[in-house]
Amino acid sequence: MIKPFEFYFDFISPYSFLAHKKIKKIEEKNSIKVIYKPILLGGLHNLHGIKAPAFIPAKAKNMIRDCKLIAEKDGVRFKFNSYFPIKSLNLMRGVFVAEEDNCKSYYIDNIFNAIWQDGLNMNDESVIQKILQNLNINPKTFILRSTSSSIKDYLKERTAEAYKKGIFGAPSFISNNKIFWGQDRLEFVLNEANK
Hints:
The chain is an alpha+beta fold. The chain has 9 helices and 4 strands.
């Protein structure tokens, strides 16, 4: 039996989106629930003093092509968001609000799709409000709660915890106290979860 493992992600990461799509299939096939761990990738990079690949022109150019190749191989509909980089701070805080409202999985799936399948401008608050309405979530209440000090602290704490564990990028996974980085490491994560 496969033991649940942790998945560290940020909506800003197209590789996290691709990992999320693989995870949904893994969960369905193996009847397990992966533990989603929201972090703020920019904050994590700052803690480590590193620059994201997306902000290094040569790497960014390759990243777009790479993501498209992976998506095509895995049969995932993918569109690199033309509004990139997306400001994910409030979207990531929203994960904790959605968790309190018992709609975390639904929220995560729809926000990922809005960014990396539909190519929506998630830097525009009116677009976010419309998505929340389509999810039958009251946008004003949801956004207000996501800016509360307790929710802000949750995201800071989770990002700091990831840093202390040695997580340095997204997606990352922890299985049997071992860290795996990158959506292409899911095979190794599953092998570890089977031990």
